[in-house]
Each structure stands twice: as structure tokens, then as C-alpha cells.
Amino acid sequence: MAVAGPSQKWRKVGGRFGSSPAPNKNGVVQELLTRLSVQAEVTRGAEARLMEPRPRGALCAVAMGPLQLPVQPPPPPLPLLLLLLMAPGAEPFEPITVGIAIGAASALTGYLSYPDFYCRFVECCHEEQPVNASALKLDLEEKLFGQHLATEVILKALTGFRNNRNPKKPLTLSLHGWAGTGKNYVSQIVAENLHLKGLKSNFVHLFVSTLHFPHEQEIKLYQEQLQKWIRGNVSACARSVFIFDEMDKLHRGLIDAIKPFLDYYEQVDGISYRKAIFIFLSNAGGDLITRMALDFWRAGKKREDIQLKDLEPVLSLGVFNNKNSGLWHSGLIDKSLIDYFVPFLPLEYKHVKMCVRAEMKSRGFTIDEEVVTRVADEMTFFPKEEKIYSDKGCKTVQTRLDFH
Ligand SMILES: Nc1ncnc2c1ncn2[C@@H]1O[C@H](COP(=O)(O)OP(=O)(O)OP(=O)(O)O)[C@@H](O)[C@H]1O
Ligand SMILES: [Mg+2]
């Protein structure tokens, strides 16, 4: 397979690799102007405004490519005022009518140039907006099963980080666990709580090791491209979210290219990375987590009694010393740049059943407990003797449900 060069593969295309072409800045403005029916009159003004620096507090950005500039709200439709004044029956210089017309026009133009209005048409970065902690809590508690540690850590980490106006470094979370335990699912929930469009947002970037960094001999190229990509997109939206999936399949050393962005620097080459979020997903450490869960189970202790402090140090050390973790001897761990190691516990029979019910509900079916049990019984469980944990987590539940 040919390796795509930087210009092909790494150009931000409408927020996704390889999707439909991104609108350019003028295209976006054009679309807005068309909607406002004042295209001809304001085009010149809009183009002029694109050249101006972005104002603080009204940060509206369109992700169009690594080094794109954010776009300002369009200029107010001043010709509307003239239209009002020229309307049939209008008394040209009658003071009250003119006064009302001016009042109405300025109210209208004020409204139209307000960022909220603009952001209805174009996705905005909303740099200063804190995360809605109760909505995130509800989402995690209702949707994510059997992961009391992940729920607690992610909720605390995100709300703390987002509500801090001056974080000293970007937030870095490393999610670890057995297959099908909800790592990608949580990333989706997090993305949706940070940017309305979730994983489809132009400000959320998902990298999959085997897809985006397949060839070991190209590490240097990937590192350069990755740096450019992150630099460009953080300059467009400081609150960008970068998710690295399949970290355990990432070539050794590749991830260290992003180390400067994760450190405690105020700026790197004029750009601050402190409001960005980096999430790493990995199966590495899944065995350590399972061993701990099993020890608790065998000792007759509750799964919910496992605490983060029991697992976090074991995980960080285990991942650091694991050649196939993507973080082997990584400067990110060495320099304590990963804020939280988040363990995902292996899922039990009752959690699989919860996943089946959730899936039935999302499809609009009434919940049939017989079907729930049949689907859960089809899954395989380990260890051989006790058969406690689902070896695929909830991963094949959706497809299995199709057969019932
Ligand atoms: N803990 C969970 N709570 C609720 N649903 C879950 C959970 N874990 C998995 N699921 C369901 O199973 C699907 C697959 O899980 P997901 O892709 O998040 O697993 P993963 O941990 O990323 O696995 P892998 O390590 O194999 O990539 C999710 O989309 C979700 O529907
Ligand atoms: Mg996954």
C-alpha cells in the first residue's frame, strides 16, 4: 500500500481524514450571506473582515486545514435599513418612522452579528465555555456500565480541567482495559460533552494507529505530520481534542513527537496547547487490571471497592515497561505528562446483560428478558474455572442481537 504524502493524507478535510472537501473561508461566508439574502452588498466587507485578527470572547472557528484562520461573524446587513426606508408607504423623513426603522435595523444587525447566531450555521470553538458537569455525570452514570473508576476519574478530570481558566498544561488521559469494556464509547461521550457534534466535530481528531501510522519505516514522516496537524488545529481551536486509538499498536517512540505539546510550556512557537485534551486508548495493562479485579473477586470483595490508587501506579509502570504499549519507555510517562491512567475493568455477565438492554432500548424495542439472557449466554467468559468476565466485553452484543 502506498503511503499517502503529507499533502494528501494530513490535510484536514472537513474535520475528517478523507471525507468531502472542506469549505474554504470565503465559501462559509458566502453560505451565510446567501441565507441572509444580502450577498452582493456585504461580500466586500466580509472579505475585508477575514483579514482582521480574531477578537477575544467571540471565538468562532471553522476547521479547514492545519493552519486555517478562524472566521469572524459576518457583517450586519446594513442595506436592510435602506430597504426599510424605501419600502412603499414609508415616509422618507418622518422622524418617528425613521427612528423606529433605525431602532429595528440596529436591533436586527446586533442580533445577526452576535456570535450565537453565527454559530448556528458554522461550528464554533467556544473557547471559554465550561463543561456541563451534571450532563456529563448523567451521561456517564446512565450509559457506561461497570466502570466506577473510569466514571469517577473522567468526570473529575474533565470538569476540573474545563472549569480552570488557566490550566498549566493540556489534559492527558490514558485509558486502559480489556477489549469491549467501553474505551471508545467513553471517548465518544467525552467528545459529545465537549463539542456538540462529538466525534464528527471539526475540533475532535481521532487517530487510529493501524490506519494513520501503518509503516514502521515512516515514523519520522508521521512524527512531522502529527506535529503539524496538532499545531495547526490547536491554533484554530485551543479546545481541540485528540484521541489516539490502538496505542498498543503504535510504533515505538512515535508518540514522543507530541511531548513538547503536553508539557508545562506557556507557548510553543507562539501557540498555547494548554487548553487541548489528549486521550490515549489501549489494551495494554488490561491483564494487570483483570488480575486485580480477579484478586478482589476471589477475596470476596466488591468490585466497586477497587480504588484508583490500587491500580494507577501498577498501570503506569506496567505500560512503561511494556514494549507493545505505545508508551514503552516513553518520555510522556517518564516526565509525568500523563495526568490520569484510567483503568477499565473487565465486564461481568450482569454488565453484558445491561449492554443488551441498552441496545434494545436504543433500537426502540421493548425489553424482553428472555432475549437478554439468550444473548448474554452466547458470550464467552473467562477465566476457565470461574467464568466471570466476558472476553469481548460488550463488543459483539449489537450484532448478536440481530439474530434474536
Ligand atoms: N462499559 C460499557 N458500558 C456500556 N456499553 C459498553 C461498555 N463497554 C462497551 N460497551 C458497548 O460496546 C461497544 C464497543 O465498546 P468499545 O468500542 O468502547 O470497546 P473498547 O474498550 O474500545 O474495546 P477495544 O479495546 O477492543 O477497542 C460500545 O459501542 C458500547 O455500545
Ligand atoms: Mg476500542
TrEMBL record:
Signal peptide: none annotated. InterPro entries: P-loop_NTPase, TOR1A_C, Torsin. GO terms for molecular function: ATP binding; ATP hydrolysis activity; identical protein binding; kinesin binding. It comes from the Eukaryota. Residues 1-24 are annotated as: Disordered. Its main location: membrane. Residues 347-403 form the Torsin-1A C-terminal domain. It is found in: Endomembrane system; Endoplasmic reticulum lumen; Nucleus. It holds the Pfam family TOR1A_C. One of its GO terms (biological process) is nuclear membrane organization. GO terms for cellular component: endoplasmic reticulum lumen; nuclear envelope. Keywords: Endoplasmic reticulum, Glycoprotein, Hydrolase, Membrane, Nucleus. It catalyses: ATP + H2O = ADP + phosphate + H(+). The keyword Glycoprotein applies. Gene3D superfamilies: P-loop containing nucleotide triphosphate hydrolases. The keyword Nucleus applies. Belongs to the ClpA/ClpB family. Torsin subfamily. This is Torsin-1B isoform X1. The gene is TOR1B.
